[in-house]
Amino acid sequence: MEIKQIKAKDTQDIRHRVLRPEQPESNAIYPNDDLEGTFHLGAFEKDILVGVASFYPEKSAIIMAPAQYRIRGVAAERGMRLKGVGSALLATGETEIWKRGAEIIWCNARIVAVGFYEKHGYRRVGKSFVIPGIGEHYLMTKVNPLES
C-alpha cells in the first residue's frame, strides 16, 4: 500500500459511497476542503485509490490549544476494511501534522470508529452527541507526543 497526497476532489467519491451513501453527492464536499494548510491523503493498492483522509488546520470550539488540526472523512473501500488502510492514512497524516507544529489533533468520531481512534492514542472528550443525518459521535483528541 502506498500513501500519497491527493486533491480534495479525489476524496469525494469514496467519502460519498462509504460515509454518506444516503445523502446527496454534494454532501461529500466538506467546508475547508480547499483551506490553506489543508491536505488530503489517499491510500493506493496497485495504483487504485482504496482509502482517503483529510486534515484541516481547524480549531474546535471546545479545545483551548492554539495550534490544532482536525481529521475528517477517513474512509476505506468496503473490501479494504481491517487491512490497515485507515491506520496508514492516520499515521501519515499525524506525522505531517506534528511537523507543522500542531499541539493537538481532534475529530468528531462516529460511534463505530471510537475504538479505532482509541487504538491510535485518541481520547474521548465529554459526552456523545448527534450530528443530524449522520449519527452519534464523540469528540476525540490526541496531544502531540513531543509536547507532553
From TrEMBL:
Residues 1-145 form the N-acetyltransferase domain. Pfam families: Acetyltransf_1. Keywords: Transferase. It comes from the Bacteria. InterPro entries: Acyl_CoA_acyltransferase, GNAT_dom. GO terms for molecular function: acyltransferase activity, transferring groups other than amino-acyl groups. This is Acetyltransferase, gnat family.
